[in-house]
Amino acid sequence: MQLTMKFGGTSVGSAAAIRRTVELVGQQVDEGHQVVVVVSAMGIRPVKVTDLLLQGAHAAVADDAEKPREIAALLRQVHQEAIAGVVEEGELRQALLAEIDAFVRRFSDLCGAVRVLGELTPRALDAIAGMGEQMAARIVAAALQTTGRPAAAVDATALIVTDAGFQDATPLVEETASHIEATLPPLLAANTIPVVTGFIAATPDGITTTLGRGGSDYTAALLGRALASDEVWIWTDVDGVMSADPRLVPEAHTIRALTYREVGELAYYGARVLHPRTIRPCVEAGIPLRIKNTFHPENPGTLIVADGSPVAGNGAMKAVTAIGNQSLISLEGNGMLGIPGIAARTFSAVARQGVNVLLISQASSEQSICFSVPGSSATTVIGALEDEFAGEFRRRDMDRVWALEPVAIVTVVGAGMRGTPGIAGRLFSALGNAGINIIAIAQGSSECSISLVVDEADTRDAVQEIHNLLQVVPAR
Ligand code: ADP
Ligand code: ASP
Ligand code: MG
What we know:
Structural class: alpha/beta
CATH superfamily of the largest domain: Acetylglutamate kinase-like
Number of helices: 15
Helix content: 40-55%
Radius of gyration: 24 Å
Strand order of the largest sheet: 5-6-2-1-9-11-12-10
Bound molecules: adenosine-5'-diphosphate, aspartic acid, magnesium ion
């Protein structure tokens, strides 16, 4: 089999974790599989290297020289400690230490430049944010070599070509495929394990971009598609996709199998275990996706299969997830009744601001439109709508546009919900009995999810109450 295996932050977060990762890769190679490895930046909970890099950049633009210095020292220390634990003393270690040192110096230089300019562009942020993966890939490749397995760190800037949408760039499929085909198969043919940086990519001009936070999962899916991998495995620090974030609901259980659509909805509505864009390349290429725990590899984890596959079972409600820090924007007015084009104008105006609408909810009358946007975008969106409908406001056809915040979107997912009557009623009663007010409700377009908007302060309770329901609503 040809396997693309991605190891998340905690899976490379310490020397011990890296040794485990190397062992897991080695096992698959020993079983005769061809393995392409993708790694995230080191994540030493609660500190993630990517967060540190970004904090340094933000401190620099605020004219703070001290913070980037502290972060540089911490970056050096964390990576040096990992190296000391996985690579024996000698030439390889020295070369690796020098490389890490060069990255940390580059981080300091970039922060210095940002501080002098007093400006932090999305492009500079990506150049800084991507260094965590570059350092981790080099360490993991060296760790593999130390165990006698030929390996080479590969920067995905040479593989994944994207547009210039810094911080959340979109891959150009054909260019990416040809770069990958030119680079990885020759390494594999020489029995060298490629260790590819997750998260980062580059524009056709070679300028570093990133695929959005958590984007290393997406990198693995892109490589999997281009290489026609038999499977893509995502190694993380939990036993697969669970019925809820185990940090919110300690009794959450692992779901053995989910469909692409179900996991897509979960990821889109906040389940951090998988980057939402990971699904599409896998669906397109028909590649099964597995989520497994680096620290409990014996656990089968979760298998993601084709929509409608009987393997995924048909449990009505399978999982619940939440995404916080949202604003619910309402556009209201008597004069909106029956006037065509209001919704189209509303969402075009929002889209022009580049803001992502996570949920649209229909009000009981036609006198308002209501949708959610990330809290940080609320002011921009309200301004854009005031401009768009300036005439309507003047004529009093529209009364106001306002934001209710902070709210959270709590989403319950399960393809079997479609054919199970009374799900919404059960959700309402469960939350009602717990004294949680439901502000709005929306059904996912794929009909395998229902989202509820609640006060952000009610998030944990709402997730817990719905999770209690998952146990009692039987599978069909
Ligand atoms: P990695 O660095 O391995 O990609 P992440 O932190 O990005 O790790 O994702 C794994 C985390 O996702 C878990 O530790 C868990 O807290 C969180 N998570 C959120 N929702 C879920 C869910 N439904 N199932 C499993 N994990 C979840
Ligand atoms: N290191 C990146 C992040 O923290 C990408 C990833 O973890 O997948 O967002
Ligand atoms: Mg992740």
